[in-house]
Amino acid sequence: MSDHPTASSVDVIIVGAGLAGLTCARDLHRHGLDVVVLEARDRVGGRTHSVELDGQTIELGGQFLGPGQDRAYALAADLGVGVFPTYGEGDHLVETAAGRVRRYRGTIPRLSPLALLDAAQAQARFERLARRIDTDAPWRSPGAAALDGQTLETWIRRTTRTRAGRRLFTMACQAVWSCQPSELSLLHALFYARSAGTLQQVIAVEGGAQQDRLDGGAHELALRLARRLGDRIHLGTPVDRIAQDEYGVRVTAGDRTWRAAHVVVAIPPTMSGRIAYRPPLPAARDGLTQRLPMGAVIKCIAVYPEPFWRSNGLSGQATSLRGPVSAVFDSSPRAGERGILLGFVEGAEARFLSARPAPERQTAVLGQLAELFGPRAAAPAGYTEQDWGTEPFTRGAYSAVFPPGAWTQYGHALRPPAGRIHWAGAETSPRWYGYIEGAIRSGEAAAATITALPRRDRPAKAVSDGGPVRKSAT
Ligand SMILES: Cc1cc2nc3c(=O)[nH]c(=O)nc-3n(C[C@H](O)[C@H](O)[C@H](O)COP(=O)(O)OP(=O)(O)OC[C@H]3O[C@@H](n4cnc5c(N)ncnc54)[C@H](O)[C@@H]3O)c2cc1C
What we know:
By secondary structure, this protein is an alpha/beta fold. The protein is built from 17 helices and 21 strands.
């Protein structure tokens, strides 16, 4: 790579136009800094995304908000995006491992009392352990080495007393982390829950992380932020190289280059590990990005002429111990003029179905919706799905999963900048890790770090304009 004398200069370059990158850019711009946002896809929003299907807005990515997600609610209010409750009136459904479908009200599914008691006791122990976690530095939590030295699966096996209880708790974990409990460290599971408050808050609808939805979908937040940033956003611009020296950074996407005093990389850690850095990143930071795979999830959406389940006294919310769909929600528009069911296929089921032909996948998903909600569910007016593992600039979801050992050995390298390279994204937030809220907080935090720098380190175009980025560094 040769130096680019024609490179454009700005104060700060932001890589990634997800909610983290966009909020970061908004705040820096408000501080009078000249920013540019480089986005690989031909759209903004990253893991939030909406499309039109059968005349309806369909949410393919992040969607729900809940209590404690203050920055997300504030952003929605600031941008004029309305909030409404997730539909939950009537009976919920639970499908047993044997395929029997049962109705229930409230929060406790109609399953064997022994299994329910067992899973409840496991959850209570989990919540007690989670209270010990220091979300700013999970590796410094009491007993961190032991907690990080085991998988969530090991802990579930040791903690639960019945097969059915284990299955129930395992299913909840798969739904939360979109992977098998054998894939993640117990410390990570505890950190994740603690970063949201409690595991109960993570899994609950009312009073929990699935409580509310946004008019036009969560993608609307990204679209409106992007509108304010205008032509500072460059779409179709996958960054492949970042060089830095004492004068500034040079960020390259194909044959285009930008110079700045600082760069904020607001993409999932594993994606940040695919960029070439000069000089190379510190070993700990690179080691971290080698260890943080994304979960596996396929979001499946069926659109019907009306939410027919409501007239049968059903809320549209269902949980299955059988799969392949583990959780279903009523995702109809606010006024309920059409019916939309959304189903999540996660972890091992997602990996299996991802490799099957699309018609087979659709048959499996609609077949299960029909088992739950009756034959009308098998014939939607429209059906679509989003397999996040196949997305080249996300490669899985909902978020990065820390396997055993990663937090204690490499966690300290997650957040600190590497010289002039700052990190943002939902995975860098100590609060609401992996959520829309975490993404927004991380973008705001990165912007605050840069604007609080001592004067001599603060972005100033003159510095990056005048100073060479060493040729030998490329
Ligand atoms: C199916 C699904 C359901 C979810 N449900 C919820 C929910 O209900 N509630 C909730 O709060 N959260 C949910 N989430 C998680 C939430 O959507 C994410 O945590 C959040 O949107 C992440 O934002 P981000 O800006 O950190 O990262 P991203 O949204 O991943 O943004 C990163 C951006 O960087 C771009 N990029 C990647 N590599 C490069 C590169 N080399 N150069 C340039 N650009 C690059 C990507 O294209 C992307 O636009 C869900 C996610 C998914 C996928």
